[in-house]
Model the fold of this input.
Amino acid sequence: MMSGVVTRFWVQALTQLLALALIAAVLSWGGVTAASAETQAVGRQGMVATSSPEASAVGAQILKAGGNAVDAAVAVGFALAVTYPEAGNLGGGGFAVVRAPDGEVITLDHRERAPFGATQDMFLDAAGRLDSNLSLESHLASGTPGSVDGLLVLHERFGKLSRETVLAPALILARNGFVLSETLAGRIQELLPELRDRPASLRKFSDGGKAYRAGETWRQPDLAKTLQAISDEGRAGFYSGWVAKAITHEMVQQGGLIRQQDLDAYAAVWRDPIHGRYRGFDVYSMAPPSSGGILLTQMLNMLSAYPVGALQPDSPELIHLMTEVERRAYADRTEHLGDADFYPVPIQKLIDPGYAKARMQSYDPNKASLSSAISHGVWQESEQTTHYSVIDGDGMMVALTTTLNSSFGNKWVIPGTGILMNNEMDDFAASTTEANQYGLLGNTANAIAPGKRMLSSMTPTLVLKDNAPVLITGSPGGSTIITTVLQVILNVIDHGQSLAQAVAAPRVHHQWQPDVIDFEKGRLSGTVIADLKARGHSLQARSAIGVANSILVTDGQFEGVADPRDMGAAAGF
Ligand code: DON
Done:
């Protein structure tokens, strides 16, 4: 008995040493630079697609070292907090959809929660108007972070390697630094002017106030200390002890609401996925507090009555049909969706195929059905979230979307910790008449309440056929996340496109209000635009929609694609 325990200890210790050696090798080798990264990869044993070449390399190395898809996903999650600080995080939250090798599909909600001190009208000024400076830029904007608990809980349930092993790559990247790509250096440079009054943030993101340049090594020693605490102590390393003290001290000093009782009470929640069927495929996605799974299922249900595959991908006929479907689903989102632990979301009704049919009774193939084009929300382009996909040789699949909400969250770093905080509170319907930063409206279902989770659009999604893996996808993009995922699925299932085509294809988006079709600038022809206008639609060009880092499985082969709209990479073997 005793010798069995001792042997197990040594086997474990050796495996982990090997894993660490492999990881250290790939990172110090310096082969992981944006320049050498590939947006596409194929393999049969493991695949990772993320928006950060360093994080993709970490995931692939963890798989090679004997970790499973969850070990890789957790290591990637921590690595992204270092190498993709726009959205990768310790101070934010996310959702994971996991398929275990036995076929069970389960989701982990690690969304932020409103602190217990939150109140319904906390972002309204004396005149009752939404103060988006408060909901986006202040310490009040932060919900209680869920990412660290989420990644650790995920790892505890499914991981094979030790916690220290899956945290090691992130720690090494933070402590030793990594070489800044043009894109990341550029994004940080753009951010600097906004950090003038945020000394801890300026310290993290600049070299004593001087902007880092592409090609320089960026080290984050404070973040390394926090990662070390998590590696040593697990959950307590973040939610109690010196890190928690630093967070609550900063919140008290700066008028934020997160207190020790919020951190103590935070717990990620296992939830059943939303399951839908579309043309013989099983689609699993996120349940409330995300609206993603319900809306995706609703839209696929509505579309299943139409010959989508017979329509050209960018044709006015298909864009019109999708718009009408999206209009109806997003109208329901406004009224019915919120945290189901606090509000009775009519989930079964919304995803019922019969309801989808009834909803489309008013559909006219030639005419826009609602003309509610009154308020055109102002789109901010600085939004950022990140999605990644992982699969291993046993068919374990992970779709994980994580965010600080806006790019770099509320841009406040907690002094001494390197932790950048989220501004997720803006995802609540803080006002019933004014939209949030994504132009989204909401009602009682998504009103602010203490301890409640704000409604999300994140849509990490798994597609299976006859219980075999087909597709892992998801995206950032605020309200456009759900329609991005929808279009990737249609491109694969209905249009039979390769994954690279399906991900790179032009995207359009409609969300009921504002009543306008968004399209990617320069990617819709003048004749298609004219045709859609003739049907009664308004259109507006915007920059890229979504970043769908995805994996497709065909005959046992994994095709990984990092969306060319961002700076990511796919890595597999
Ligand atoms: O949870 C949500 O729906 C938003 N906070 C996501 C933000 C986002 O995708 C920004 N990305 N580009």
About this structure: Residues 5-11, 28-35, 373-382 have pLDDT under 50 and may be disordered. The longest strand covers residues 383-392. Residues 1-38+54-177+219-461 form one domain. The longest helix spans residues 2-29.
